[in-house]
Each structure stands twice: as structure tokens, then as C-alpha cells.
Design brief:
180 residues; 2 strands; globular
Length: 180
């Protein structure tokens, strides 16, 4: 993918450590997952980080870009999640989408042509949206419930006890699919 590039982050660490717990990653950390310590050097524009990454073939500049671009990326992801209506904010899902977007941004870095005049943040916007849509499509594939199991759902919702252990297992598995 990015042959010939290095990712030398010597001297930089994550500002907020990611400690997994039973509750998952705290929202505060998920929204600041790309923040670096110490602060990256200040550039006139975010595009200078991308140009430096391409010229020097060092992805630490891409990390500097992410450090500053993260609030805008968070805003886009939250707006995307808000389209679902009744969908509550889920930190793990938010983080998964965010990492999918970062992966897409990295893949499109090599195709970016600054000579065309667009800033990288403008260029990457449709690809970020595509990454979020692909993530949602993947979720929908995982949560599809076969018709036979869907017929058992009213029993689960009504609290009716199944008559066999096989049915109990299927109901438990089916209700687990709904929660994911």
C-alpha cells in the first residue's frame, strides 16, 4: 500500500492512554485517540503536513495531520451517526468507524495530487463518507436475522419461555444479534 514510507514516531506518544475495561474505551479517549504528546510542530495549514508526508515519505506527518484534523473527523462521524435517528452514541462503534476512516485516508494518500489545487481535507471528504457507509453496510450484513429466527422474536419480547433447550439457544442467539 504505502511502499517506501516510514512511520517514525520517535519522541511522540499518545496523549491519552487507551486502557480497555469492562465498559470499553471512555468516550473522552475515543474522541482524542489521535492526539500526540508533545504537540506536533505547528504548520500554516493542515495540507503542509500531507505535503511533508509525501515529500519525505514519513507518515509521522500524517499523524500530525490527524492530530489537528481529529475534531473535524469526530464532527463528521457524529453527524453520520445522528442520521440513524434512534441510534444512541456507542463509543466502540464510534471508534471502529473512526479507524475505518483513518484506514481509508491512508489508502488515498498516495492518490492525492496537490497540483490539482484541492486541499487534502477537501479531497478526502467523499472517501471518508464512503468509509462510513461501507462500515454501516458491514453492520447490516452482520445483523440480518433469518426469517425463521425472526418469527421467534415476539416470544422473546413477550417473555414467553421456550419449550426446548434448542429453542432457548436460538432465542438467546437471535436476541444477541439484535443488540449488536
Amino acid at each position: 500500500m504505502l511502499k517506501g514510507f516510514s512511520w517514525n514516531m520517535t519522541g511522540y506518544i499518545l496523549k491519552y492512554s487507551v486502557v480497555s475495561s469492562d465498559d470499553g474505551v471512555p468516550p473522552y479517549v475515543a474522541e482524542r485517540i489521535f492526539q500526540l504528546e508533545p504537540e506536533p510542530p505547528v504548520a500554516d495549514s493542515l495540507n503542509k503536513y500531507i505535503l511533508s508526508a509525501l515529500q519525505e515519505k514519513d507518515l509521522k506527518y500524517f499523524s500530525f495531520f490527524l492530530h489537528h484534523y481529529e475534531p473535524q473527523l469526530n464532527k463528521r462521524i457524529k453527524a453520520f451517526l445522528g442520521v440513524d435517528g434512534g441510534n444512541l452514541y456507542d463509543t466502540d462503534r464510534f471508534l471502529d468507524i473512526k479507524l475505518s476512516c483513518r484506514e481509508q485516508m491512508l489508502q488515498k494518500l498516495m492518490e492525492y495530487n496537490p497540483a490539482k489545487g484541492a486541499e487534502y481535507a477537501t479531497y478526502i471528504y467523499p472517501f471518508i463518507r464512503d468509509a462510513m457507509l461501507r462500515f454501516r453496510m458491514g453492520e447490516e450484513k452482520r445483523t440480518r436475522i433469518p426469517r425463521k429466527r425472526a418469527k421467534m422474536l415476539p416470544l422473546t419480547i413477550a417473555g414467553t419461555m421456550p419449550t426446548s433447550s434448542g429453542t432457548a439457544y436460538r432465542l438467546k442467539r437471535c436476541s444477541g444479534l439484535l443488540r449488536s
